Structures are given as C-alpha cells and as structure tokens.
C-alpha cells in the first residue's frame, strides 16, 4: 500500500485474463451493498469499444444492468483510446464516486492502464495528423524494422521497450520525438501532476487474482474461447468488418482474439487455425500480465477461489471498508 495520510480508498481488482476478475468485483459490490455504496470502473482497453462484446469477454447486458461499469461502451471501434484518456476518465469517475460517498472499485487486466492510473501519465503532445500520416507511409514503404532502427538512433531507451511489430507504439514514439525534439523515454519520467495517491488524495489498494496452477488457467482460456465461438464471435467479427470505416489496422483490432479473427475472415487461416492462434495469443497475454504483476510493488495476491470468498478476503484486508 502506498503510504499517505488520506483516509479515502480506491480498490483495484486485477489479474491475468480469464481469471475471473469481474466476478470478484461484482461479488465485492454485493458484499458492500451494491450500486448505492460502490462505483465500478472498468480497466480494459477492449471493453471501451461498442460492438466488441463477445471477444472482449464484456459482461452481459443483464450483468451491466445489475452491476453498472463506467468506461464500457464509450468509444466506436474506429476511435483511438489511449492510456492518457483512460487516466483522465478514471479520475473523473473516482472523484464523482467520492462526492457521492461511494467506494471506487477499478477492475480489469489492462496493465498499462492500471500502472498509469497509479503512477500518473506522462504529459505528451497531442497527435499530429500530418506527421502521423507521413510516418505511417514510411512504415508501409520501409517496414517496422527500418522505423525501429530510426527510433533506436533517436531514443535507444524507448526503442528497447517497443517491438518493431508494434506499429501503434512505434509511430507514437517517433511522433513525440519529432514534435518535441526530446527523447520519449525522458518524458516518461515527467508525470502529469502526481501519482493517484496525491492527485486524488486517496490510498490505492491493489488486489490481484492469481491462478494457483498455470495449466488450469491455460485450460480455462481455451474453454472460454470455445464459448466465445459458440456464442457468435465470428458473426461479431463480420459486423465489425462491415462497418464503413473499418480497417484491420485500427488500434481496436489489435486486441487479442480480434486480430486473429480478422486473419480468419481474410482467408489467411481456417477456423481451426483461428482458434489455435487466438488461444495461443491469449495465453501469451496472460503470461505477460503475470510477469508484470510479479514486479508490482504493494500488490496483495489472492489465490484463485470462489468469487465471494475472494471478495470477503479483500474486505478483511481493507483498512476500512465503508465508503467515505
């Protein structure tokens, strides 16, 4: 826990994909008295998009009626939504929760969003459409390796953290360097204002739901993807593809499952290949999330269990469970 004098609290429930974070947060909401006492805020980079329901494992419409979440279905798939956007939006909902006397409960597994919410966000320049278009054309003409080499010459620290096959981050890093004349890695250190504990005057208590068996998580990921397929995920992909402004290069379409699904619709793989590549990518995502969580300071681990039991464990560990 971050040392701070404030008695106000924020709960963050996180963990790897498919571990059941949403179930735990909803159980916690029930234990605390429901919507009148708590405010649920999603920390998920795919659930922000309308129409991306099945593949993002978004709570059902009925569940969202019972457990409303802020920051779900707030953008169209053609829109860009950044970590900075998330922090600004999450701050606004946390502040409103405090004003209403509610406990803010953030839930989700987008680790970049969670980290930037807790630590603060670098104050970086807005996108420049002309420069971005020029860089995107260079990417198309020269490829990711060439642009990554360009970034490495300008900012080796940032280049070491960005893969040549991650066009969104690669283009943004080059864009920032060209716009500011300064290394992006230097600007990462200059947080916009302060970390959450200071800017929101609140403690942030982080709880991670972790599997006790990696193989069991892998099996659950595969089973969940089969449920997605049987629930109409391919039809969802076709609806997204039919949108007038659709492109496979949209940031939203880089989400795990959607990227592989679009390859299937393009005829690049058959349905078995689609399933295999999506399940493999999701397992790799879970591995990255677990690696990130292992290095997270002040994290309180919860071993996979019944959601109600985990919710009650959180309540026992909270310095104060009543909303402020």
Structure explained in plain terms:
The protein is of the alpha/beta class and 324 residues long. Helix content is 52%, strand content 10%. The chain has 2 domains: 9-121 and 191-317, P-loop containing nucleotide triphosphate hydrolases (Rossmann fold), CATH 3.40.50; 129-188, Orthogonal Bundle (Histone, subunit A). It has 15 helices and 6 strands. It has a 6-stranded parallel β-sheet with strand order 3-2-4-1-5-6, sandwiched between helices. It is globular, with a radius of gyration of 20 Å.
Short description:
With 324 residues, this protein is of the alpha/beta class. It folds into 2 domains: 9-121 and 191-317, P-loop containing nucleotide triphosphate hydrolases (Rossmann fold); 129-188, Histone, subunit A, CATH 1.10.20.
Order of helices and strands: EHEHEHEHHHHHHHEHHHHEH
**Amino- and carboxy-terminal Cα gap:** 18 Å
Shape: globular
Report the count of strand segments: 6
Strand content: 5-15%
Helix content: 40-55%
How would you state the average pLDDT, rounded?
90
Strand order of the largest sheet: 3-2-4-1-5-6
- Class by helix and strand content? alpha/beta
């Amino acid at each position: 826990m971050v040392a701070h004098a404030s008695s106000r609290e924020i709960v963050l429930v996180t963990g790897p994909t498919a571990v059941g974070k949403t179930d735990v947060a909803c159980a916690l909401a029930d234990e605390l008295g429901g919507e009148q006492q708590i405010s649920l805020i999603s920390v998920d980079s795919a659930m922000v998009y309308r129409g991306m329901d099945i593949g993002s494992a978004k709570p059902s419409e009925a569940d969202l009626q019972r457990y409303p979440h802020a920051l779900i279905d707030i953008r169209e798939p053609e829109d860009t939504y950044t970590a900075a956007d998330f922090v600004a939006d999450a701050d606004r909902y946390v502040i409103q929760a405090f004003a209403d006397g509610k406990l803010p409960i953030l839930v989700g597994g987008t680790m970049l969003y969670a980290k930037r919410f807790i630590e603060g966000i670098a104050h970086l320049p807005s996108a420049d459409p002309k420069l971005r278009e020029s860089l995107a054309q260079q990417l198309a003409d020269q490829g990711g390796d060439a642009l990554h080499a360009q970034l490495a010459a300008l900012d080796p620290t940032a280049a070491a953290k960005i893969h040549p096959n991650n066009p969104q981050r690669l283009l943004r890093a080059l864009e920032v360097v060209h716009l500011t004349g300064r290394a992006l890695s230097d600007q990462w250190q200059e947080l916009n204002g302060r970390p959450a504990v200071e800017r929101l005057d609140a403690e942030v208590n982080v709880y991670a739901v972790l599997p006790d068996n990696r193989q069991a998580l892998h099996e659950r990921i595969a089973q969940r993807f089969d449920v997605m397929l049987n629930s109409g995920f391919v039809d969802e992909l076709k609806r997204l593809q039919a949108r007038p402004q659709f492109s496979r290069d949209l940031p939203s379409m880089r989400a795990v499952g959607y990227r592989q699904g679009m390859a299937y619709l393009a005829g690049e793989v058959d349905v078995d290949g689609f399933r295999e590549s999506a399940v493999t990518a999701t397992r790799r995502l879970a591995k990255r999330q677990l690696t990130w969580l292992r290095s997270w300071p002040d994290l309180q681990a919860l071993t996979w269990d019944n959601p109600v039991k985990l919710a009650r464990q959180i309540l026992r560990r909270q310095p104060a469970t009543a909303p402020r």
